[in-house]
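Internal tracking record. Fields below are filled automatically when a chain is submitted to the structure queue. Please do not edit lines marked as system-generated. If the sequence contains nonstandard residues, flag them in the REMARKS field before resubmitting.
Queue: standard
Priority: normal
Entity type: single polypeptide chain
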Amino acid sequence: MAHEDEGAPTPYAPAQPGTVVAYRGATLVDGTGGPARPGTTIVVDGPVITAVGPDADTPVPDGATEIDLTGRYVIPGLIDSHQHLATPPNRPVAEAALRRQVYGGVTAIRDMADDLRQIADLTRATRVGEIPGPDIHYAALMAGPGFFDDPRTWQVSQGETPGHVPWMQAVDDHTELPLAVAMARGTHAVAVKVYADLPARTVAAITAEAHRQGLAVWAHAAVFPATPAEVVAAGVDAVSHVTLLAQQTADESLTSYKTKAPIDTAAIVRDGHPRLDALYDLMLAHGTVLDATAGMWTWMAEQADDDAARQRALANIDLSIRLTADAYRAGIPISTGTDYETDPGQPYPSLHEELLFLWRRCGIPAEQVIRSATLVGAMSMGAADRMGTVEAGKLANLVVLTADPLADLENIRAIEYTVKRGHRYDRADYAKGTPA
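SYSTEM-GENERATED OUTPUT FOLLOWS
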């Protein structure tokens, strides 16, 4: 090394081991979907929870900082299981979104394919604490060659050729999958995202090879021509976009991402469909997580440029409500992904809108919506051993609320502060568009 500079400052670094904090008197909603636990103590040592239990049975370690949370409610850090932070790359916009997310209670996100040259550095910067933001778990994308005239593929491959970069690869029958997956893994991705224009046999082959190399597989719920049932049967870990499940009801073979089969949306909204019931059974058997992005179509309707696009989005809102509610009743684990971010002037991240959509429109109880946004979110990214619930041995990712989220899920916005890896982010310190 030519010199030994200290590097950039890390004002948002995780708390150091040996820094012990005991949160006392909290009403805990622990992320499991169970009832609230009043009078609870949470002991944190650096970035990790070391004890959780009733106040009377959980001693405060000698030398610990004691914080009285009487009258406060604690939930696990929230997880957005579907984000895109760099399509196209814009570092100031991404940093602003990450900052708003963590001050809005979000301690982890799943980035579902982007320009990973930038995402990798944002992941490093939020992890070590150079900038405020949630932990980022991201995927490298694979799709059929026909997909790569999509303008978004050029946005995330600037200076290179779309489909021929490690973070976004065109795959066909001639692809050496062990090499392709190894290249994806070399981006430090934790998963391969299977996107579009791939037959069932290729989806299955990618999934098997990715799992062999220790990567998860996240897929669109329909990959075209691979059907939802074929995607699930391939063994992918999670599927995205609940409305794509409706492609299982198509009476003709699926062809390509650009030419989706016609679906009788009104009939599904009214009556459901036996093929969808069979699909839910298959998802249960495989343990497939559904990243529903249920409320996305409300945002799409607001963003529509013409009446036809607006009407299409409104129809998909009704479809999304029906399919998400049916999947929930079938027992499918549903995570809370958004696939968009709210306008920069808004005080809270898009994840809050998704939680409220699941509660208000899909009829999912508040404690189960919180479970979806915590434990199931952690499951969606293969991180349930480290986050998603408030229990000993997991990361100290907490949100402290001043009002009861189970009585009214709107109280998810009553944030006093967020704790991520033991570092505290006071909501009062958050100011739109300005650094901390």
